Amino acid sequence: MPADAPGPEPSPEPPGGAEPSRPPLTDAQKSLRAQMLATEHWSLLASRSTTQSEVLTRIAIFLTLVSAGLVTLGVLGNATAFSGWFGVAALGVLFLLVLLGLITQIRVFNTATEDLVYVLAMNRLRAAYVDLDPGIERYFMMGTTDDGTGIDRTYYAFAVRSRTQILGSSMMLILLVHSALVGLFTGALLFALTASVGLAIGIGLAVVLIVFVGWMSWGYRGYRQVLRLHEPLRRATDQPGG
Q1: I need a surface site. Which of 55, 100, 140, 217 has the fewest CB within 10 A?
Q2: Contact between residue 107 and residue 178 where contact means Cβ atoms under 8 Å apart
Q3: pTM for this one?
């Protein structure tokens, strides 16, 4: 009986490595590597899909609770003529919504970071496919480099990635809602303490802006941190014409 095909050789060193290049892989070795890479690729896709589905469900639940909370305040206001214990109830409902928004906001930003890592991992796998068969690279629309250029191409393959993608994202939606809730709660609390409408509105708007900018800065720092900690195996500048 013919002997089994030898297993895969260790991957060759990147350009500039100390080890000399090894003999080319056999077809059997390439086939086995492709199967292992495809298994990992499907695992990443499943994890990414599950994460996105979970966070979208969390956002939907939060928005439903916000809607229900505001409707409840309207009903209570009509029942109490916006006097008596209505103020305490309103502050309690708004405070609960702010806490739920905080938890949801943290999860949304963490998910954005996780999604970035999934994109980097899948770009690295596409680079491995290209190593096995360089001729297939021109058929990939997504990025084949695990660097900033590859990330942008995967997120938006048809043009230069712009700020409109961020402005239209679920992350921006939840950030606006949460910032508005924090400002509304702050304004309501100040009005309850000072009975000054102008002060409540002014401070409330300032808090909305501060919370919005603070969260955006925090999210951007998380994005940059991933790129600082990640060391690409393949960069766009390493490719011909890069």
Answers
A1: 217
A2: no
A3: 0.79
